[in-house]
Write a structure and sequence with these properties.
The complex is a heterodimer of chains A (307) and B (499). The two termini of chain A are 20 Å apart. Chain A has a two-stranded antiparallel ribbon with strand order 1-2. With 307 residues, chain A is mainly alpha-helical. Chain A contains 13 helices and 2 strands. Chain A has a single domain, classed as ABC transporter involved in vitamin B12 uptake, BtuC. In chain B, 32% of the residues lie in helices and 24% in strands. In chain B, the strands form 4 sheets. Chain B has a 6-stranded mixed beta sheet, sandwiched between helices. Chain B folds into 2 domains: 234 residues, P-loop containing nucleotide triphosphate hydrolases (Rossmann fold, 3-Layer(aba) Sandwich), CATH 3.40.50.300; 235 residues, P-loop containing nucleotide triphosphate hydrolases (Rossmann fold, 3-Layer(aba) Sandwich). In chain B, a hairpin with a 6-residue loop joins strand 11 and strand 12. The termini of chain B are far apart. By secondary structure, chain B is an alpha/beta fold. Classes of the chains: A mainly alpha (307), B alpha/beta (499). At the A-B interface, helix 8 and helix 9 of A face helix 9 and helix 10 of B.
Chain lengths: 307, 499
C-alpha cells in the first residue's frame, strides 16, 4: 500500500493547499458541488477500472452516458414511473456494454477499435432517436438523483459509494474480479488455465455499460433534460482517473480506491482552478500535464522495484 | 589481451547483480561464460557491450580503461553482441535489420536500399546461411532470426563478439552452423565470449571457461582440464548429483489415449497411449511436431481427424477449457508468455486453474486460498517469501514450480510437460524431475517433451520419437542418444511408423 501512497498524498496536499488558498473551498456548498460534478465520471471510472485491469479500454462510455440518459428520460416523459425509467437507462447501458463485449470476443477485434466504432454508433443512435433535440419533459422528482440531499450529503455521493463498494468487492473478493486480473496480466496464461475468458470479458464490458447508463441518468438528472450530446469526452476523463490512481493500460493493475482518488484529484484541480480564478484554458493544460506527471512518477517507481 | 575486467560491480537499486566480476579474454580465444540464472553473466555482458554502466571495478579494453555509455561506443571499438531474445524489427527485411542504425546512406539523406541488399546478400553467402536479404524478419523462425542477429553482429571489423545463449532456439544443424562461425571467427583472431547452459555442446568450441556464481567470478580454467562435475560444482557452489535416475513403476490403467490425430498444419495420424504412473519422453528435432502434439491434445490447435481419450472419456479438443475439465494439464514451453501471470501473486497463479474450489458462489474465500497455496508451496518446495509475492520475482526453477502447482492444485491426471527445464538452473532441474516422479507415483500420466536428450534418457520410462509430424518410433529405457537421433532424422516414410 505504501507504494501507492503518491496519489493519496497528492490529493491530501491539493486539499490542504486549496483550503489555505481559497476561503470558499472548505465550505459545504463547494465540497458538495465538487462531489456532484465529479460523480458522473467517477462512476464511469469505476467501470473503466475493471476494463483497464483486464488490459482493455472502453471509449464508448461517453456515448452510453447520452444514450442511457436519453432512454431513461424519454421513458419518463412518456409517463413511466421514475424508478422504472432509471432501470431502463441502466439496462440500455448494460445492453450497449454487452454488445461491446460480444464484438470484442467474437470478432476478435481489439477493444480500442470496437469501442471507438461504438462511440460513434451509439452517439449517432442517440441523435437519431431524439432527433437531435433534448428531452425536457422530465418529472420533477427525477432531479433528486443528481441534486438531492440525504442527511446533508449529496445523494450522488451515496450512489457513488455504493457503486464503489460493489466494484471493489467484485475486484478483490470474487472469481470474476480475479479473472479480470488474470486476463489482464497474461491473457494466454488465462486461456491455458481453462478460464472462460470470453464470458468474463463480456461480463465486465456489460457491467461497465450498466454503470455508464447510471452515470447518464445522473447527468440527465443534473441537467433535468435528456441530452443526445451529453457525456462527450467523458471517456477520457474516466481513463485519466484510473491511470492517475495507479491503473496500468498494460493490464493487471488497478484499484477502486486508487481510481476514486484519481477522480477526486481531477475534480479538485478543476474546482481549485475555478476558485483561484485560473483561466479555463490554462486549466485544461494543467490537468493534462498532471496526468503525465502522475503516470511518469508511477513508472519510475515500478522501474526501480523491478530491476 | 583483448579484454580485462577486475572486480566489476553493478547494483540495481538495493540489489547487487554483480559484485566481483573478473574476466580475461584474449584475441582468437573462445571463452565460455557459465553460471546459473541470476549469477550475473548477462549483467557482465551488458557492461561490456555498453548497454549498462558499471558501478565499480576495472574494465580494460586492449590495455586501456574504458567506460562505454551506450552500445554504439562499444561497437566503435569492435565489440558486438548477439542477443538471446531477438532484438529485431519484425516488419523490416533481413537486410534492413542487418544495417539497422547504420544504414548505408544514399543521396539527400535517403537510404541506399540496393547497396544494403547487395551487402547483406554477400554477407549471408559468405557464411552460407539459409536466408535471403529481402525476406521479412517477422516471418522467420526463431532460428532464422538468430542468424540475422549474428549477421548484424559480425558485419564490420568486430574484434570481440558476445553470444548470449545463441543455440537455445536452434536445431541441431543450425547449432553446428553457429559453431562453424565461431571457429571461423577464432581463426581470424576475433575474441568470442559465449554464454551457454548446455554443457554437452561446449567441448567442441570452447578454449577457456569462466564461471560466475551469485554475482562473482568463482573460477576460470582451460576447458580441456575442467570436468563436467567440477563445472557444475563451481556453478552451484556445492556438490550436486546432476545425474538423476528414476525408478520406473509398474504402469497402471491407460489415462491418455491418442488415436490417429492429425492437424492441418503438421501432425499426421499420431497415436500414443500413456498409463498411470508412466513418464513417457517425446523426442525429435525442432519442428517435428512435439509441441504441436501437446497443443492439439490440450485443445489449442484445431484438429482435423483423430480422437483423444482421457481417463476413459473422450475429449472434444475444441478448447483448453474442456481439456482442463477432463484432467489434462499443459506446462508450456514458453513459461513467461503462456504459463505464468508474472505480475500476479504466487497464490493467484496457484489457484488460477481451480478457483472454483475456493470460491463457492463466486466469492473467493481468502483463507482457503491461502491454505491451498501454502500446501502447494510446501509440496513443491517453492522457495519464496510468501504466497503474496509476485510470481515474476522468483527464479526460473521456482516459477516453473508455480506453473506446475497450478495443475497439482487442480488435481490434473495427465500432464504434458513441454521443455520443462528450459531456462532453469542445474539444481532446479533435478527438483523438477523429482516433482514429475512424485506426480507419476501418485498415479498421473506424464508426457515429457525435451530437446535435451540426456534428460529424456534420465527421466523417461520409454521414449517416443517424432519426425515431420509423424510418430516414427518408440525406444525403451536404456537406449542411447544416438538411437534417438537416428530415429528423429529418419524421414517418416521409410521409418517404422507406429500406427
Amino acid at each position: 500500500m505504501i507504494k501507492r501512497l503518491l496519489p493519496f498524498l497528492a490529493l491530501l496536499i491539493l486539499f490542504v493547499v486549496l483550503s489555505v488558498a481559497s476561503p470558499s473551498f472548505l465550505t459545504a456548498q463547494n465540497l458538495s458541488s465538487v462531489v456532484r460534478q465529479t460523480a458522473v465520471f467517477n462512476i464511469l471510472a469505476l467501470g473503466m477500472t475493471l476494463i483497464i485491469i483486464s488490459s482493455g479500454i472502453d471509449l464508448s462510455v461517453g456515448s452510453i452516458v447520452a444514450l442511457g440518459g436519453l432512454a431513461g428520460t424519454m421513458a419518463m416523459a412518456k409517463g413511466v414511473p421514475i424508478p422504472i425509467g432509471v432501470l431502463i437507462g441502466i439496462a440500455t447501458g448494460l445492453l450497449c456494454g454487452f454488445i461491446n463485449g460480444i464484438l470484442i470476443t467474437q470478432l476478435r477485434i481489439i477493444p480500442f477499435i470496437v469501442t471507438l466504432g461504438m462511440m460513434g454508433v451509439l452517439r449517432g443512435f442517440a441523435l437519431i432517436i431524439s432527433d437531435g433535440m433534448p428531452v425536457h419533459d422530465v418529472p420533477k422528482g427525477f432531479q433528486f438523483l443528481g441534486e438531492g440531499t440525504v442527511f446533508g450529503f449529496p445523494f450522488v455521493l451515496l450512489v457513488l459509494i455504493v457503486c464503489a463498494v460493489i466494484v471493489h468487492f467484485i475486484l478483490e473478493h470474487t472469481r470474476l474480479g480475479r479473472y479480470v486480473f488474470a486476463i489482464g496480466s497474461n491473457p494466454d496464461a488465462a486461456i491455458y488455465a481453462g478460464i472462460p475468458v470470453n464470458f468474463h470479458t463480456v461480463a465486465i464490458y456489460a457491467l461497465c455499460g450498466g454503470l455508464s447508463g447510471l452515470a447518464g441518468l445522473i447527468e440527465a438528472s443534473r441537467l433535468s433534460t435528456g441530452q443526445p450530446t451529453a457525456g462527450q469526452g467523458y471517456e477520457l476523463q474516466a481513463i485519466a482517473a484510473v491511470v492517475i490512481g495507479g491503473g496500468s493500460l498494460r493490464g493487471g493493475e488497478g484499484t477502486v480506491i486508487g481510481t476514486l482518488v484519481g477522480g477526486f484529484i481531477m475534480g479538485l484541480l478543476a474546482n481549485g482552478s475555478d476558485l483561484l480564478g485560473i483561466n479555463p484554458y490554462v486549466q485544461q493544460a494543467l490537468i493534462g500535464a498532471m496526468i503525465i506527471v502522475f503516470v511518469a512518477v508511477d513508472e519510475l517507481r515500478k522501474r526501480k522495484s523491478y530491476s | 589481451m583483448l579484454l580485462e575486467m577486475k572486480g566489476v560491480e553493478k547494483r540495481f537499486g538495493g540489489m547487487t547483480a554483480l559484485r566481483q566480476g573478473d574476466l580475461e579474454v584474449r584475441a582468437g580465444e573462445v571463452h565460455l561464460l557459465m553460471g546459473e540464472n541470476g549469477a550475473g553473466k548477462s549483467t557482465m555482458m551488458k557492461i561490456i557491450a555498453g548497454m549498462q554502466k558499471r558501478d565499480g571495478g576495472q574494465f580494460l579494453w586492449q590495455g586501456k580503461s574504458v567506460d562505454f555509455s551506450n552500445p554504439k561506443e562499444a561497437a566503435q571499438v569492435g565489440i558486438a553482441m548477439v542477443h538471446q531474445e531477438s532484438l529485431l524489427a519484425p516488419h523490416l527485411s533481413v537486410a534492413e535489420n542487418i544495417f539497422l542504425g547504420r544504414e548505408i546512406p544514399g543521396p539527400f539523406g535517403t537510404v541506399n536500399r540496393r547497396k544494403m541488399l547487395a551487402e547483406a546478400t554477400r554477407l549471408i553467402a559468405q557464411y552460407g546461411f539459409r536466408l535471403q536479404a529481402d525476406w521479412m524478419v517477422g516471418r522467420l523462425s526463431p532460428a532464422g532470426k538468430q542468424l540475422v542477429e549474428i549477421c548484424r553482429a559480425i558485419q564490420n571489423g568486430t574484434s570481440l563478439l558476445i553470444f548470449d545463449e545463441p543455440t537455445s532456439s536452434l536445431s541441431e544443424a543450425e547449432t553446428h552452423e553457429v559453431f562453424r562461425i565461431v571457429r571461423d571467427l577464432r581463426e581470424r583472431g576475433t575474441g568470442v565470449i559465449y554464454i551457454t547452459h548446455r554443457m554437452e555442446e561446449l567441448r567442441s568450441v570452447g578454449d577457456k571457461v569462466t564461471i560466475l556464481r551469485d554475482g562473482a567470478t568463482v573460477h576460470s580454467e582451460a576447458l580441456a582440464s575442467l570436468t563436467r562435475d567440477r563445472m557444475i560444482q563451481y556453478m552451484v557452489g556445492r556438490e550436486v548429483n546432476a545425474i538423476y535416475r528414476r525408478d520406473p513403476l509398474p504402469p497402471g490403467a491407460p489415462l491418455l489415449e491418442v488415436t490417429g490425430l492429425s492437424t492441418k498444419a503438421l501432425l499426421r495420424h499420431v497415436s500414443l497411449t500413456i498409463r498411470a504412473g508412466e513418464i513417457v519422453g517425446l523426442g525429435g528435432l525442432m519442428g517435428s511436431g512435439r509441441s504441436e502434439l501437446c497443443r492439439a491434445i490440450f485443445g489449442l490447435d484445431p484438429v482435423e481427424t483423430g480422437s483423444v481419450t482421457v481417463c476413459g472419456k473422450r475429449v472434444s479438443l475444441r478448447n483448453p477449457r474442456e481439456a482442463v475439465a477432463a484432467g489434462v494439464a499443459l506446462i508450456p514451453e514458453d513459461r513467461q508468455r503462456t504459463g505464468l501471470a508474472r505480475e500476479l501473486p504466487i497464490a493467484w497463479n496457484v489457484t488460477m486453474a481451480n478457483l472454483e474450489a475456493v470460491s463457492p458462489g463466486g466469492v473467493i474465500r481468502h483463507a482457503e486460498e491461502a491454505r491451498a497455496t501454502q500446501k502447494a508451496i510446501d509440496r513443491l518446495r517453492i522457495r519464496c517469501e510468501n504466497g503474496q509475492q509476485r510470481a515474476g520475482r522468483l527464479s526460473g526453477g521456482n516459477q516453473q514450480k508455480v506453473v506446475i502447482s497450478k495443475w497439482v492444485n487442480r488435481g490434473a491426471r495427465v500432464f504434458l510437460f513441454d521443455e520443462p527445464t528450459r531456462g532453469i538452473d542445474v539444481g532446479a532441474k533435478v527438483e523438477v524431475f523429482e516433482v514429475m516422479d512424485q506426480l507419476a507415483r501418485e498415479g498421473a500420466a506424464i508426457l515429457m517433451v525435451s530437446s535435451e536428450l540426456p534428460e529424456l534418457l534420465q527421466v523417461a520410462d520409454r521414449i517416443l520419437v517424432m519426425s515431420q509430424g509423424h510418430m516414427v518410433g518408440e525406444l525403451p529405457r536404456g537406449c542411447s542418444q544416438e538411437d534417438i537421433m537416428r530415429l528423429a532424422t529418419v524421414p517418416p516414410a521409410s521409418g517404422e511408423t507406429l500406427q
